[in-house]
What does this fold into?
Amino acid sequence: MIKTTIGVQGMACNMCENHVNDAVRNTVKCKKVTSDHKKGITEVISAEPIDEEAVRNAITKDGYEVTSFESAPYEKKGLFGFGR
It folds into this structure.
């Protein structure tokens, strides 16, 4: 699994978070997408690395600015972090 953290500038509310999440979901195959307008980030969990250029274009097309793009291996933790 891969966790990609995307810096997104221009999100002001929960509806903005939904727009960015939908843009990512409609562009790449992913397991989970979450955004936080207060932190200015979107996190994507996927089985394979995602196409940075396609995601940047989709988010920018909706009127937001991508400020960073970082991927790292991701391992799901057990219940309450136990078992690891």
